[in-house]
Amino acid sequence: MSDASTLNGAAAPSGTPSGTPASTAPRDFLIGKSRWKPAEFAFWAVAVGALFALPDRHLLLNEIAILGLFTLSLDLILGFAGIVSLGHAAFLGIGAYAAGLLTKHGVSEPLTGLLAAGALAGAVGFLSSFLILRGTDLTRLMVTLGVALIFHELANRLDWITGGADGLLGVAPGPIAGLFEFDIFGTTAYAYSLAVLFVLFLLARRIVHSPFGLSLRALKDNRLRAGSLGIASARRIVAVYTLAAVYAGIAGALLTQTTQFVSLEILDFARSADALLVLVIGGTGYLYGGLVGAVAFTLLKDGLSAITPAYWLFWMGLFLVVLVLVGRDRMVERVRGLLARAVGRRA
Amino acid sequence: MTVASESSIALETRGLTKDFGGFRANSDVSIAVRRGSRHALIGPNGAGKTTFVNLLTGVLSATAGSVLLGGEDVTRASPQARVRKGMARTFQINQLFADLTPLETVALAVSERLGTGAQWWRRLGTRSEVVDEAAELLTRMRLGDVMTRRTAQLPYGKQRLLEMAAALACRPQVLLLDEPAAGVPEDERHEILDMVEALPAEVTVVLIEHDMELVFSFADRISVLVQGALFTEGTVDEIARDPRVRTVYLGEEVVHA
Predict the structure, then answer these.
(1) Containing domain of residue B118, as a range?
(2) A213 vs B contacts (CB less than 8 Å)
(3) Are residues B39 and B1 in the same domain?
(4) How much is the ipTM here?
(5) What is the pLDDT of residues B10-23, one digit of tens each?
(6) Residue A97, Cα to own-chain centre: how many angstroms?
C-alpha cells in the first residue's frame, strides 16, 4: 500500500502517468553520460597549455603523456572489463622494440612506426587474450606475469636483434609525417605524444560510452547475468584485451621514438607494477584515472628523487600505503557529495 | 488433457541427470512443457530445483540426458546461445548489475537481442528503438520512476522486478522464473505477484517455487521434484489432492494454503 503511494508520488512530476511524452528523458539520461564535462575541457586545456607555459619541462611532460597512455590502456581492461594484469609491460615492450627495429632498418617515419608497433602488440594481445578468458583473478595475474617474463627473456636472449641487456641504441626517427623534426628540448616529443594520447583517448572515450562499453561494464559487474542476457563474454574480452595491447604498443613506440633508444628495462616487472600503482593513485573506470595518476606519480617520483635521490622509493611506498588506507574513493566521494549538495541547492 | 503434438512442446528434458562427484543432484528427469503453459516445478529444499534450472539454461552441463528447446536439442549449447534461441531466466538470488541503472541493464539486454550490443562506435542512447523499448518495458514493470537510479540502491522488491524485466527484455519464448518472490517483504509482494500474473500469455513460463500459494494460484501444471528425481506430475487439482505430495512437504515446512 505504502509502496503504491510512493510510486504514484514519484511518477507525478515527470509528466503523465502513461509515460508516452516523457520518453525523451531516458534517452537524455543515457546520452548525458557521454557528454563532455567542464572538468574534462579544463584537463586538456591544461595539458595543451603546459606546452607553452612550461617550455623547460617538455621532457618530463612527454614522459607523463606516455605513462598516461600506457595506464589508460591498462584501465581499459582493469577499470572497464575487470581483468587484472601484472604483465601489461609485455605490450609496451613489444611496441617499443618494434618501433626501434623498424626505425633502425630504414622505416624512420614515426607515424608508420606507431601503427606497426600497435599492430604487432595487438596481434600478440589477441593471441594471449585466450589465456585469460577462464580462471580467477589470481590465475590471470599469474598468466599475464608469465607472458611478460617470457618476452623479457626473449628480448634478453635475442641480443643480435634487440641488443640484449645493452638495449637498442642509435634509434634515429625521422621527422613526423616528414614535417616535424624531434628536438633536444622534447618540445616536438611532447606535442607528438600529447596529440597521440588525445586521439586515442577520444577513441577510448567513445568506446566506453558505446553499447560495447556498456556490455564490458556488465561483464565486470556480473558475468553470470551477462551470459544470461545473451552476451558472449569471451569475444568482448578478446576484443578489449587486444585493444588495450594496441594502446600499450603505441605507448611503447612513442617512448622509443621520443627517447631514441630502447632499454631492456621496458619489459621489467616494475613497469607493469608501476602502471597498477598509477591506477591506484588515479582511480579506475573513469578514463582519467590513468592520466591524473600519471601526472601525480611522475611528479611525485621526480620531486622525491630530487629531494632524496637514494630514498625516494621509501617515500613513494609510504605515500601509497597511506593513500590506500585512507581510501582515495572515500576522499573523492566526499568531495563529490559536497559538490552535488551545492549544485542541488542551486537547482 | 489433449494429446500434445511435438511442435506444441516449448521445452522438454529427456533423462536429464547431473552428478556432483558421487552425489546425484538430478536423476533421469523428463518433463515436457507445452507452449504457452504455466508450468510449476516444485519440491522441498534440496530437491534439485536450482540444479535443474542450471541444466536447462546451460550454466551447468548435464552428466546425461538432453534439453530440447522448441524441438531443437540445445544440450551442448552455451548459456548465451540458449538465450538467443529463446530461453531466458531470473535468479532466485538477485544476479543484477549493481553499478548499472535499470535503464542500462534493460537497454543492454535489448541491444544484445537486436544484435547491436557489440557496436563500439555508437553513443549509448542514440538508438531510439533500444531506449524506447527499454523505457516502455521498465514502465510496464513498475520501474519507470527508478530506471535511472543505481541498481544497488533500489529496494529489494524493485530489484526482483528488475530480475524479471531483464529476462523479458530478451523476448523469450520460454521464461524460467526461479522463486520470483523469494525474500521479498510482505508489503512489496503483491507487486511481484501482479507482474507474474501479467506476463504475456504467449510466453511459456516455468515457475520454480516452493511457495504453494503462489504455485496453486498461478500454474496450470505442476511437476514435483524430490531428491533430484521427478516424483509426480499433473494438473493443479491432481497435485493438490495427491496425499503423497502433502507427505513430502510435511515435516519439511508448513504448507502455505
Answers:
(1) 95-171
(2) 120, 124
(3) yes
(4) 0.89
(5) 999 999 999 999 89
(6) 20
